[in-house]
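Re: duplicated header lines in exported structure tokens

Our pipeline writes sequence and tokens for each protein into one text file. With two proteins the header for the second block appears twice in some exports. Here is an export where it did not happen, for reference. First protein block:
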Amino acid sequence: MMSSFTSSGDSADCVIFLHGVGSGKEGWEAQVVATLDVDWRFIAIDAPGFGETPLPDQASFKPHVERLLEVINSLNANRVVLCGHSLGGMTAQEFYATYPDEISGLILSATSSAFGKPDGGFQKEFLRARFEPFDSGMTMPEFAKHFAGNLMGPAASANAVNQVVEVMSSVSVEAYRLSMNTIVGFDQRDNLKNINIPTLLISGEHDTNSPAKMMARMAERIAGAKYVQLADTGHMAPIENSAAFNHHLIQFLKSLD
């Protein structure tokens, strides 16, 4: 499992990047390979079921938390900051709720604190809409080309759209289905008040999956959290607006020093 992460630098202070449902560790390329003015090691890992990691047996965040703990234990790190996007942001919250002493900071990108009840009407319709293309025989590369634009803001470049299509195309339908069934059961609303480490929340102005207003309210429930909204940006900010995303990432890491 350890072969499925990429890293840069050799600092004992580490940022671990956690991707979303329609991505993989490659979705963090603009962060991991960037030459950023901070003395931190950047690591992007594949969630369970993505890349070379085994597909879990059931829809649960437990394998995601265990996978992350395994990576952290292998690093012998001084400090660890989790930077989670969408599904990865939920994993970061789940991990902090279970192992708060392992983490020195949180960056939550285009995510939420809850998805409601798995058997709720909204959740059922959400899954039906996401799974219908595959039930009709569509492949993931076909779905990526069809759906990627919905994840982007109106000013997204063709290159950014192509990058999202590329990383999404590599996701298996099985991993996508299981991850979607995992997030509809997510709920960490009650733990927001217990987060007592430096936390940055980043939203996109035009994100319809994790709306900016929702993330702003989420930030208000975390003591001392900083919230930023990226203009003209959709759901895939780390790819779509990497310059602005990296700027706030750097400033957050510098604030920890």
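Second protein block, exported in the same file:
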Amino acid sequence: MKVLMFGWEFPPHIAGGLGTACYGLTKGLTQHNVEVIFVMPKTFGDEDQSRIKIINASEVEFDARYWKEHLFEHQVSFIEINSQLVPYIGLDDYYHIINQLKSDVFQSAESGQKLRYQFSGRYSENLLVEVQNYALVAAELAHTQTFDIIHAHDWLTYKAGIAAQQISGKPLVVHVHATEFDRSGEHNINDIVYAMEREGMLAADAVCAVSDFTRHIIIEKYGVPEEKVFTLHNAVEFGNKEIKRTRPLKEKIVTFLGRVTFQKGPEYFVETAKKVLKYDNNVRFVMAGDGDQIQHIIEYAAESGIADKFHFTGFLQGDDIETLFGMSDVYVMPSISEPFGISPLEAMSAGVPVIISKQSGVSEILQYAIKVDFWDVDAMADAIWGILHYPALSEMFSACGKQEVHQLQWANTAARLKEIYKQLLHL
């Protein structure tokens, strides 16, 4: 069985849990004799290709005009607008993208003339244009590659998946790692993104949700028939080395790791920190990550009078995350709406007790994690204080959590996914 899979990021170059999940899932599939061709907008040369074949979309030549005309016949919609959807962009990237637009290469191309589109490989200001051109690359690959099934991860790749489906006639699986309701909240939905998500879900032959929490949103908010929506919980990738526990400071360390955005509830982390520090000044709080709310949170911590107890590390990955977990006494994920949440599993694997919001998909599968409502900062503060001041409690969550999370293998998730593939292929 061979899968043509479309993603947007892949370790070690990731912005969040999406790339981590793609890596774990593809590795798990190969353990079940499923061959994966993984397509991404831009590769950097240091991705692990020992188990899968990775195609760099920026190196694929395609006839833009031909595929646009052909896909329009199959009613694959395109949106040609520029939109500031995600704030991860620097000045160099911005001017590079603007220069591409001004070059007008696609509008001037004639049918039969093959071109390459240089994707930024990031969540740039020009994101929707990249999504569209990624679909044109997908059409070319669907025409030239041999495969049995198509798998598209998250809304950025759904148009690519639909294009490949229309060209090849092969079944399409879309994977929902987050919805617009998670990212923006109930009352701030981006209608363009919502429409693209819904288009992908309705076109798919099967929809994989990372939790029952997300499955419910897909059925209720997007109108997808429940019989084609499957829950496929994430897992965690374990390294071979034991993470070394260190104590660099006299104070205890409480950690937040994730994108600093509305969805992740960073303000509740600051609120909780204020309450803990009222009763115990021997604690430091670390916020590891970056995002559109980072400046606001820095200012909020300063206004709250706890800046001297707060550390902002910026975006971390790889060994830096392991180092942080090695010195952490508690990990907190106060997410407002979390489809799943892989970072608590990584923390538990390192032996760190975790506190997670009940509004997270990962809470469905964990027993040895303290679960509180994201808005209940009093309960969150009490949980932190308890772990920091009762060694037996901390040791229990550390040991039992580590044992529990090591049962959550990507190979098991991949086995369930393979069964979905077989069902679609009538095997």
